[in-house]
Amino acid sequence: MPIDANTLRGSLCAAAAMVAVGSSAAVSPVLTGYPLLSGQAWRYLVAGLILLLAHRAGAPAARPTPAQWTRILLLAATGMAGFNVCLLKAVQHADPSTVGAVVGAAPVVLALAGPLGAARRPSTRVAVCALVTTAGVCVIQTFGAGSATGLLYALGALACECCFSLLAVGLLPALGPRRLSGLACLAAAPLLGLAAALTEGRPRCACPPAPRAWPWCT
Fold it and tell me: What is the structure's pLDDT at 74?
């Protein structure tokens, strides 16, 4: 059966997004010496402004309802702030390969939790495909060394990643991908900034040191 252009484009974008998320486990150890909460707060503030500016180029949209704002805040707290904090904490206690293998189980969780949340029976075909995908992630990543603390943080990152997808599904038709992403980023920024003020002092903007392992950094 031929695949239409929208389905192909969506599949390619989804694959690229998963590659980016999966790669974050490998590069996250570089950022462990950077102020965790402050760095993430600045990151989401800049990303949110860029995304909303890109959205304004399209058609105007209605303001989110209070119920939608509640879901956006939950999405920001879990899938953005919570995910990145757990991920960076996990790679401090476990190898990136171990963290990547745990977070790579997200397709299985989503294949089962999504239909169950809508009071439907999970599709056997989708569940099998999710298992195959997760098995492939584990084969590619392999399991390295780690600790119980690292595993718990990795499981927290997995839970936050799944919450991000499950909470976003109901908001996408009304808000669209760019607007939803922008609003969630802007919601995550003050949450992380407040947490940084309570634990790290005043949020600050600093450039991460150049890793010596990169040959182009001096």
Answer: 93
- Measure the CA–CA gap between 208 and 218, rounded to whole angstroms: 13
In order, the DSSP letters of the chain are: -PPPHHHHHHHHHHHHHHHHHHHHHHHGGGGTTS-HHHHHHHHHHHHHHHHHHHHHTS---PPPPHHHHHHHHHHIIIIIIIHHHHHHHHHHHS-HHHHHHHHTTHHHHHHHHHHHHTT-PPPHHHHHHHHHHHHHHHHHH------HHHHHHHHHHHHHHHHHHHHHHTTHHHH-HHHHHHHHHHHHHHHHHHHHHHHTSS----PPPPPTTSTT--
Beta carbons within 8 Å of 96's beta carbon, 6+ residues apart: 25, 26, 28, 29, 144
For residue 218, the model assigns a pLDDT of: 40
Q: Which two tokens stand for residue 97?
A: 């390969």
Task: Kindly report, residue by residue over 174-200, the tens digit of the pLDDT.
Answer: 888 888 889 999 999 998 888 888 777
What pLDDT sits at residue 73?
93
Residue 133: its pLDDT value, please? 67
